[in-house]
Amino acid sequence: MNFKIILAGLIGGVVMFLWGFISHMVLPLGEAGFKTMPHQDAVLPAISAQIKEDGLYIFPWPESPPGTPMPVNEESRKKAEQLFQTSPHGLLLFHQPPAAMLSGGQLGTELATNCASSLLAATLISMVLGCLGSFAKRVFFVTVIGLIAGVAVNVPDWNWYGFPSAYTLAQIAEHVVGFGVAGLVIAAIIKPGATTPKPAA
Q1: CB of 58 within 8 A of CB of 84?
Q2: Minimal CA–CA distance to 3: which of 193, 199, 190?
Q3: Complete DSSP assignment for 101-139
Q4: Among candidates 142, 148, 140, which has minimal Cα distance to 122?
Q5: Residues with Cβ < 8 Å from 21, sequence gap 6 or more?
Q6: What is the rounded average pLDDT for all residues in the chain?
Q7: I need a surface site. Which of 7, 55, 58, 200 has the fewest CB within 10 A?
Q8: Distance of alpha carbon 193 from alpha carbon 201, whole angstroms
Q9: What are the DSSP E strand ranges found in 14-124?
């Protein structure tokens, strides 16, 4: 792989990581759509008493035996539909204690993910560089990758599971801006003539 692609990917990933810090620690994007659970002092012990295994739980979902994600018959499907009319429904992401709110491992994973995403974007830029002669076009190309990622990942959760609109829009915005700032770096490093391999002898 061309050195400039690697360099652009790594620096772009660091810039994307810094944007993530700003969006979560300075701006309200990181908390958009979240609410504090009311009466958590009473609710959390009750949840812990009933759930003993880490996992992502959907409720209500009475129609299937444990470990079976889909309805097993028409009768059980109708029971689920009735419960959706009369009972709360949603998702519960559950982890047993103890755990840290923010760990070095999580930060390292986030940085590695940002660098990998940026590296993939830089690779794509290098592959279609002939069509992206201007700096603005290259930045726009990478920004659109962020838009695609944000829409593809977050809109289905909003549509199928009822994720808050504020959360969905904030996540899409974070992807778009994150890839956009990475695109500024990638476009500045990868430009026509910078990554074209030499012809074979």
Answers
A1: no
A2: 190
A3: SS-HHHHHHHHHHHHHHHHHHHHHHHHTGGG--SHHHHH
A4: 142
A5: none
A6: 88
A7: 200
A8: 19
A9: 55-59, 90-94
Q: Is cis: bond before 164, omega within 30 of 0? A: no
Looking at residue 196, what is its pLDDT?
A: 44
Q: pLDDT tens across 93-123, in order?
A: 999 888 888 899 999 999 999 999 999 999 9
114 in Cβ contact with 13 (< 8 Å): yes
Could you give the dihedral angle defined by the CA atoms of residues 44, 47, 48 and 49, in that order, rounded to the nearest 10 degrees? 120
pLDDT of residue 61: 75
pLDDT at residue number 69: 60
Which residues of the chain are modeled with pLDDT < 50? 194-201
Return all residues near 108 (Cβ < 8 A) that are at least 6 apart: none
Would you give the DSSP letter of residue 84?
H
Structure tokens belonging to residue 85: 């009319």
Kindly calculate the radius of gyration of the chain based on its CA atoms and give it in whole angstroms. Answer: 22
- In this prediction, residue 200 carries a pLDDT of 43
Contacts 24+ apart (CB under 8 A), 38-46: none
pLDDT, residue 199, reads 40
